[in-house]
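pasting for the record
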Amino acid sequence: MENRDISRDGLTWKFELKKGVKWQDGQPFTAKDVDFTIKTVLNPKVPVRSRFGFDNVKDFRLVDDYHVEMTLSKPYAPFIWTWQALHIVPEHILSKVPDIRTAPFSSRPMGTGPFTFHERVSGSHITYKRNPNYHRSAAGLETVIQKFIPIRR
């Protein structure tokens, strides 16, 4: 609750991003990443899981590197869940690709979390390694392996 502000009419939502957060390649996480992600979600040419809630965004603006402000077309109380479900993507990588739908990022994702994508073995597993740039305390594990288990019916 302390990192955002909602106007009395429920139309203007302000968010403050945490400072010191870095992408797993060491680049800073900023409001430009949020701006790029919102524009990508709202772009009808880009297939996304859902635009629900974001289709209510009438205006979006960057205040500075760590503050964003959105104006909704109508009050929408569940917008906080919409916002929380947003997977922000790195503008510094994806803004340079000719077609985001076929970007290598889709098979080699990168985020700001405690583990980095290391490898995917189709039908077998995905391996993650500890992120040295994580903004909180280091993960207690060096490596995490996610195994795929086929379901037999």
